[in-house]
Here is the input.
Amino acid sequence: MEVKIRKAEINDLKVIQNLNHKLFLWDYGCDQTLNTDWPYQEAGVNYFEKKISGELSVCFVAEQDGDIVGYLIGHVDKKIDKADTILRCELENIYIDEAARSEGVGRLLVQELTKWCKEKGAQSMFVSVYYHNDNAVSFYKACGFGPFALKLERGL
Here is the structure.
């Protein structure tokens, strides 16, 4: 099946929220502090609206047979890290419906973000992933990402 990647529009909001909710439910297995209802709350709605309409942020959707089967959100910023001296792009979140996985949809979304970041003048791209999410780590490595930093946490 042919996949079409395009910038999201505001009328895609509900589908993006639903996909993000599925992502949160999946990620909840790694982090039980997640508010899985966030995509539907005011803060979530504001976040998605800003990313869809932003100049330094972007939301792409992947369509198969006219249905949105995945999305990706990213942004560029010089202040992603306090000590940054270059413009970086962050792949903030991505989700592909389970039925559309392993068909190259995620890779196409990452390629589109890469192109967009280069157009914005970014010099590198990074993504954060849960340590135990082996499938995501493998996917990002296949897309050219490599180890950069390790964030450690402990409960109190």
Q: What stands out?
A: The longest helix spans residues 13-27.
